[in-house]
Task: inverse folding
């Protein structure tokens, strides 16, 4: 039986971190809201009771329903034998995946620093300040952290020669940053060699190559998390 992924149909967003993993592992899945629309997603989520996911993305595998991007990736890795096989190492991978989630939240806050429900145009002054701190302090701190984690692992990936959910997520993160902050990322080029090598290697994974060339791959856009606003991207 194939997995069901529920995520907003028009943006890559957080759903793309799950999608990339499913595609890299060449797993069968239905991208349900891409087929049935956003209203179907809202209906499905609201029909769920009790300990249900708070927000998409969420994954359904038979009776199992899981929200939270990092947790979905942990579940899939465990179920498909794509973890490290060692609890302490798997927890370190999860720690990094949750660091990625934190950074994704900070990226979103560069254009929505006050409230996610307000328009960007209504919070631009705060966004300038937030983006300035993001460019100067927060992003370099995170990228050093991830680059150090990759150093000396004996291969391009966190686990050396074997890719994991952290690697596909770092790829998506870097692609998103390149889209949203092209000047900044050009300025930082060469500063994070392990991350750059990883970004160049992920498209060589067979499932990823096929996916990136397909129509299933959604382009970044200004409704998503990684948005390009020239005024927020000053190197
Ligand atoms: N921490 C959650 C965040 C989930 C989340 O914020 N989902 C967004 C879309 S990317 C959403 O639809 N949020 C609705 C809301 O917060 O009300 C995760 O990493 O999956």
Result:
């Amino acid at each position: 039986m194939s997995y069901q992924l529920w995520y907003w149909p028009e943006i890559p967003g957080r759903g793309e971190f799950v999608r990339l993993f499913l595609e890299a592992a060449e797993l069968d899945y239905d991208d349900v809201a891409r087929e049935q629309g956003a209203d179907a997603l809202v209906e499905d989520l609201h029909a769920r009771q009790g300990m249900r996911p708070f927000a998409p993305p969420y994954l359904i595998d038979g009776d199992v329903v899981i929200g939270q991007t990092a947790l979905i990736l942990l579940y899939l890795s465990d179920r498909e034998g794509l973890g490290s096989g060692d609890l302490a190492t798997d927890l370190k991978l999860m720690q990094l995946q949750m660091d990625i989630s934190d950074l994704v939240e900070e990226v979103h806050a560069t254009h929505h620093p006050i409230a996610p429900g307000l328009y960007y145009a209504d919070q631009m002054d705060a966004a300038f300040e937030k983006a300035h701190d993001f460019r100067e302090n927060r992003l370099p701190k995170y990228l050093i952290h991830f680059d150090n984690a990759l150093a000396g692992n004996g291969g391009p990936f966190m686990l050396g020669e074997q890719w994991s959910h952290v690697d596909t997520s770092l790829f998506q993160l870097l692609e998103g940053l390149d889209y949203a902050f092209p000047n900044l990322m050009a300025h930082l080029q060469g500063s994070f060699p392990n991350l750059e090598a990883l970004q160049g290697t992920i498209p060589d994974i067979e499932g990823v190559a096929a996916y990136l060339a397909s129509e299933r791959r959604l382009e970044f856009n200004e409704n998503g998390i990684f948005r390009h606003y020239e005024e927020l991207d000053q190197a």
In short: The mean pLDDT is 97. The chain has two domains: 3-79, 87-232. The two ends are 48 Å apart (CA to CA). The longest strand covers residues 3-6.
